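Field log, afternoon session.

UNIT: design team B
ACTIVITY: writing a sequence onto a fixed backbone
BACKBONE:
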């Protein structure tokens, strides 16, 4: 039975009361008045500042659930954001006031179990994965649409319970960039997705959202608005809304020489030119907001005092290296167009009135909520739906070993003439004795196109899940041809897909090598695969102008196709299955984790990270055209992360490294593609502490060991120690636009030492390889052998840096502890009271131990203040129902009897239902001033302590639930 607070009195004299505050606390503590959370910009005076959250929350989309449907008696807002390659992904945040937010769930645990989302077999999803989403609430269901750049295109997820339900996944089978799901209520809720970059397109979906049934390209194009200074660049991130009979398209644009800004398009016809009689474009364009880079995002309805909705903007601003940070921006509407901010101006750090009024207790609670948090790794987070996500793990490929390590081309040296070879396109194949190896080569002449050349069908010998090495020797001799020419070996899948698999630059008159490798996807083997040799494509006019440069004759010899032995790491069921450990929702893994190699249960109260494999140095950024290499740190799997926050953020942890092996590195990072970290490294039996700092420019070829070598002047020989305390102080203000980090260590948790000077600067990576703000990370990787482990004990946040030079201030913690001791457990539900007393016990234990950093003070204070604020709201909402209940136990004939007594002090009848483990009794319509009782026979000689659940329903009122405890009793003996 659900429990809530009421004025119900459990008159037992045995109710657990809090003991007096610790003697170490102040005798006269200050009033409890906690500061807002690290991600709240609520000023507490009826205003807030922008941007909100002070953390990376890009590509936001907000949906409102009206009070009549929320089940909470007030409007509830949910917001989705982009987290790309992180897992779990697509966070859902909740707010009652649009200013303060907390993470309540994720749409998915893993974007995929494939290699790229799992840092497996050389693949990765950095800067890819889940991109800009749209969140919609429609007819009692929630929908999230997003596109993926490398995970199979666009998806729609849906649930009827956004906080506690599982999400159904619908794959649309193609990419729809920056899509906005829109249900056209004016047309019976017909579903569309508006999408695109450089123009706005739309598709109509089937009623069940499973397929695209119609397409509407180029609904809005920049060319439709010549001379408009606010249109140009980007032109993406479309979100669609219907307001007062008009359809609004909200986009981000970036005209040359200007900043990022919002542009609005408005029409009465959703599909624009497709619904006008003459095919003209009805969408009218206006500059929405051009102020300090606040741009892409969402429009949000807020109920006004007259019941009419007033639409605000929720747009993010690039604030790297913190990230892309959202801002709630009020709007003034005139003639159907909004003016955002103060007459179109939104200052960074500017203040605006809160759009939604909360009670004092509600406001205090909302201010305590956050999207970052400290953690003691006690495995006490609630079990959440994403933890139960199920995947079908594909069977290991059935490999024909006779086709591995052997030549697969028929007649690869052309000793049998042209046997096995055909012509791709139009050309002539003949045999030449001018060979590279052996006695013969293939001469290719009379080529009509760049793709004209020898081809062989290898479908029968190619196997899914196998990597192939492909090579050939080529030569061309035409003196009219260029001195060098690139040659390619290209695959054709039998449809319209051509892929260059091997390449090389040949020099005129010399035998030159073409080479490359490719892997046949285990889950997508080609139905047909033909390999042919060609030169780079140009059009027919270019060929006609200079055929010697593009379709020259050439010799081909010693072409080779050989499959490698399969050593790939395959997905494992236990890698994906829930492992019994529950992390708080603020945490995300850098790519999908391998659940076999992390735990909160192997050593209770610690996060254990075990190395599951050895880093290779062979991973590259598949997103980037020049395919630069990853560092060891970026390749490492099971790096646990959460957002940093501005303007200053400090994180502290303790690391037990006794389980490390030679070649292991583990520590605390502040990371993006550029990163700084403090780590313990074990080499040849020696354990050293040091600092690594990787900054731009980033080379294509990376010397991983040199890149992650400890900086001179930062190393400490840890000798026989097995644990070290680490602290990272991140400063985003000196100067703005750069991150500088100072690292500290302690061997006893009391005396701290700085490791060198501050390191940096970390700045925005223009390649957008990661494309997110810097994050805190806990990591462990192996370079020699897998199986080593480390244990992290706690993760403590603060916004105070050691370099600030402030004395430690336990005043807020002492105030919270003192306030907790003024509360009466009888006034609160048991579950909420237990959560508060658990936080209180941890806070008092911390107070008893003493402090050496502000992190050690702030972490328990923030946790306790959050639970105290929850109790404050429960007390404020408690119905004033004057009914007294008591429960006692006694022995009758050697058996325990539980007696419930109730007394109605109301001036109206109250029906009381008492529910016990031994039966239920209903006192129907108990008259004012009257009492009643009932004895429940337990048939037990020994009775453990327990509770009676009570439901009290006054005439003409809503039911109130509460509990009344009873003591343990032993009868006889």
């Amino acid at each position: 039975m659900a429990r809530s607070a009421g004025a119900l009195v459990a008159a037992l004299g045995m109710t657990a009361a809090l003991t007096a505050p610790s003697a170490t606390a102040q005798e006269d503590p200050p009033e409890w008045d906690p500061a807002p959370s690290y991600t709240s910009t609520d000023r507490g005076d009826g205003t807030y500042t922008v941007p909100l959250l002070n953390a990376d929350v890009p590509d936001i989309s907000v949906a409102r659930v009206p009070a009549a449907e929320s089940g909470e008696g007030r409007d509830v807002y949910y917001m989705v954001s982009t987290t790309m390659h992180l897992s779990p992904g697509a966070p859902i945040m909740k707010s009652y006031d649009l200013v303060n937010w907390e993470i309540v769930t994720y749409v998915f645990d893993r974007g995929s179990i494939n290699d790229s989302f799992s840092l497996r077999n050389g693949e990765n999803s950095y800067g890819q994965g889940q991109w800009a989403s749209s969140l919609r609430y429609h007819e009692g269901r929630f929908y999230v649409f997003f596109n993926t750049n490398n995970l199979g295109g666009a998806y729609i997820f849906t649930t009827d319970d956004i906080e506690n339900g599982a999400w159904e996944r619908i794959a649309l089978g193609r990419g729809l960039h920056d899509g906005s799901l829109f249900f056209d209520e004016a047309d019976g809720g017909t579903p569309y997705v508006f999408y695109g970059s450089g123009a706005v397109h739309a598709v109509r979906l089937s009623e069940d959202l499973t397929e695209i049934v119609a397409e509407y390209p180029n609904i809005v194009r920049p060319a439709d608005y010549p001379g408009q200074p606010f249109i140009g660049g980007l032109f993406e991130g479309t979100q669609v809304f219907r307001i007062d009979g008009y359809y609004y398209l909200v986009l981000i644009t970036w005209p040359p020489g200007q900043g990022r800004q919002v542009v609005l398009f408005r029409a009465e016809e959703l599909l624009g030119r497709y619904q006008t009689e003459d095919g003209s474009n009805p969408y009218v364009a206006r500059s929405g907001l051009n102020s300090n880079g606040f741009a892409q995002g969402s429009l949000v309805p807020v109920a006004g005092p007259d019941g009419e909705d007033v639409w605000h903007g929720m747009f993010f601003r690039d604030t790297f290296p913190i990230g892309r940070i959202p801002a709630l921006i009020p709007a003034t509407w005139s003639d159907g167009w909004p003016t955002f901010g103060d007459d179109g101006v939104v200052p960074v750090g500017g203040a605006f009135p809160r759009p939604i009024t909360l009670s004092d207790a509600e406001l205090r609670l909302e201010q305590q909520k956050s999207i970052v948090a400290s953690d003691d790794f006690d495995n006490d987070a609630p079990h959440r739906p994403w933890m139960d996500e199920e995947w079908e793990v594909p069977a290991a490929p059935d490999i024909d070993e006779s086709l591995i390590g052997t030549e697969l081309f028929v007649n690869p040296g052309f000793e049998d003439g042209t046997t096995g070879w055909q012509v791709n396109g139009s050309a002539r194949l003949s045999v030449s004795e001018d060979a590279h190896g052996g006695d013969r080569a293939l001469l290719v002449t009379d080529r009509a196109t760049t793709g004209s050349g020898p081809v062989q069908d290898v479908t029968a010998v190619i196997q899914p899940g196998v990597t192939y090495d492909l090579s050939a020797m080529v030569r061309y001799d035409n003196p009219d041809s260029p001195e060098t020419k690139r040659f390619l070996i290209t695959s054709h899948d039998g449809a319209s897909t051509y892929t260059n698999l091997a390449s090389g630059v040949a020099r005129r008159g010399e035998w030159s090598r073409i080479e490359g490798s490719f892997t046949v996807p285990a889950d997508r083997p080609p139905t047909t695969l033909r390999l042919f040799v060609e030169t780079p494509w140009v059009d027919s006019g270019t060929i006609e102008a200079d055929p010697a440069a593009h379709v020259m004759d050439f010799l081909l010899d010693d072409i080779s196709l050989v499959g490698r032995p399969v050593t790939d790491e395959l997905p494992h069921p236990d890698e994906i299955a829930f492992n019994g450990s529950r992390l708080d929702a603020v945490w995300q893994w850098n790519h999908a984790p391998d659940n076999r190699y992390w735990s909160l249960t192997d050593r209770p109260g610690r996060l254990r990270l075990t190395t599951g494999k050895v880093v290779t140095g062979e991973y590259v950024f598949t997103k980037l055209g020049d395919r630069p290499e990853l560092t060891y740190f970026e390749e490492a799997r099971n790096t646990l992360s959460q957002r940093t926050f501005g303007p200053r953020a400090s994180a502290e942890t303790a690391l037990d490294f006794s389980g490390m092996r030679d070649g292991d590195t583990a520590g605390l990072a502040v990371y993006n593609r550029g990163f700084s970290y403090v780590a313990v490294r074990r080499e040849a039996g020696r354990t050293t502490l040091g600092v690594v700092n990787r900054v731009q420019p980033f080379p294509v070829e990376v010397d991983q060991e040199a890149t992650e070598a400890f900086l001179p002047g930062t190393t400490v020989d840890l000798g026989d120690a097995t644990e070290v305390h680490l602290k990272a102080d991140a400063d985003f203000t000196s100067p703005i636009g750069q991150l500088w980090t100072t690292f500290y260590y302690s061997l006893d948790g009391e005396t701290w030492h700085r490791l060198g000077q501050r390191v940096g600067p970390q700045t925005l990576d223009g390649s957008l390889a990661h494309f997110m703000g810097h994050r805190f990370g806990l990591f462990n990787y192996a370079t020699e052998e897998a199986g080593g482990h480390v244990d992290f004990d706690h993760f403590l946040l603060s916004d105070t840096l050691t370099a600030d030079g402030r004395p430690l201030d336990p005043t807020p913690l002492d105030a919270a502890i003192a306030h907790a001791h003024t509360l009466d457990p009888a006034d609160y539900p048991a579950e909420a009271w237990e959560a508060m007393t658990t936080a209180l016990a941890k806070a008092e234990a911390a107070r008893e131990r003493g402090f050496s950093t502000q992190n050690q003070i702030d972490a328990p204070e923030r946790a306790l203040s959050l639970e105290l604020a929850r109790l404050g709201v429960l007390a404020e909402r408690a119905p004033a129902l004057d009914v007294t209940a008591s429960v006692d136990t006694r022995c009758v004939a050697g058996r325990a009897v539980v007696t419930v007594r109730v007394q109605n002090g109301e001036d109206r009848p109250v029906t009381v239902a008492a529910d016990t483990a031994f039966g239920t009794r209903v006192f129907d319509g108990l008259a004012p001033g009257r009492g009643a009782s009932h004895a429940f026979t337990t048939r037990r000689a020994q009775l453990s302590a327990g509770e009676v659940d009570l439901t009290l329903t006054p005439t003409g009122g809503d039911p109130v639930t509460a509990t009344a405890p009873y003591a343990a009793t032993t009868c006889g003996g």
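LOG NOTE: The chain has a mean pLDDT of 93.
NEXT ACTIVITY: expression trials, pending approval
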